[in-house]
Amino acid sequence: MSSDADGTNTFTPSGLIPELPNAERKLETMARLTASVRLYVVVSPDVPIEISVERAKNVLEAAGIEIVVMEESLLEDVPETLRVPRVGNCSGELTHDQQRLFGLNDRKSNRDVAVYFVRATIPFVDGCAVHPDEHPGCIIASRATEWTLAHELGHVLGVAVHTDEPGRLMVSSTRQLGPPPPLPTLSSDEVSTMRRSMHVQPAVQ
Ligand SMILES: [Zn+2]
């Protein structure tokens, strides 16, 4: 899954993992990984997609994970109910709407992460990362913040719990995070969880 043993394609994180003492941080090298995402636009979000993608790329860089956008497609003719899908309490149980939304596209690979940009959700949330096992992905509402995409990708890549530590990407609401700098941070546990995800793969050299 990860190719940490392969020292030929490594990089040193730029100090975004505050838990590591300096000496250890210097020694820490990580094989570069990539996560492929496919962006499906049902309704254009308030924050331009390229800004959200840029933020996600910048934050996940600290985990040695490069976000690669494989596709950005406008989904037309999506039924009105799926433009404002029900997401329930967004904690494990899928709604009928989520099942239908994630099933809209023929996936070439169930390793790729699909992101659906919708108008809103019922109830109102900025994003929700609960998805069918065979269709990894998340839903982003048009009112989402510039950090919502990065945060939901963190969930899709396996980070299940929120933190109440200020300035961290996985805070319970990304509305607590302002514009950069600084970038929201990741803990070393979050980094290793994401790097073990089945949705990341060794970077092609
Ligand atoms: Zn969350």
Structural commentary:
This protein is α/β, with parallel strands linked by helices and 205 residues long. The protein has a single domain (36-199), classed as 3-Layer(aba) Sandwich (Collagenase (Catalytic Domain)), CATH 3.40.390.10. It has six helices and eight strands; from the N terminus they run βαββαβααβββααβ. The strands form two sheets. Strands 3, 4, 5, 6, 7 and 8 form a six-stranded mixed beta sheet that branches. The protein is globular. The two termini are 16 Å apart. The structure holds zinc ion (ZN).
Main traits of this protein?
205 residues, alpha/beta, Collagenase (Catalytic Domain), two-stranded antiparallel ribbon, 22% helix, globular
Which small compounds were modeled alongside the protein? Answer: zinc ion
In DSSP terms, counting alpha (H) and pi (I) runs of 4 or more, how many helices? 6
By CATH's scheme, which homologous superfamily applies? Answer: Collagenase (Catalytic Domain)
What fold name stands as the CATH topology? Collagenase (Catalytic Domain)
Query: Terminal Cα separation, in Å?
Result: 16 Å
One letter per element, helices H and strands E, the order comes to EHEEHEHHEEEHHE
Q: In CATH terms, what is the architecture?
A: 3-Layer(aba) Sandwich
CATH hierarchy class name: Alpha Beta
How much of the sequence is in beta strands? Answer: 15-25%
Biggest beta sheet summary? 6 strands, mixed
Given the C-alpha coordinates, what overall shape results?
A: globular
| Secondary-structure-derived class | alpha/beta
How many individual domains?
1
Helix content, binned percent: 10-25%
Number of strands: 8
**Overall radius of gyration:** 17 Å
Flag low-confidence runs. 1-15, 22-27
What is the mean predicted local confidence, pLDDT?
Answer: 88
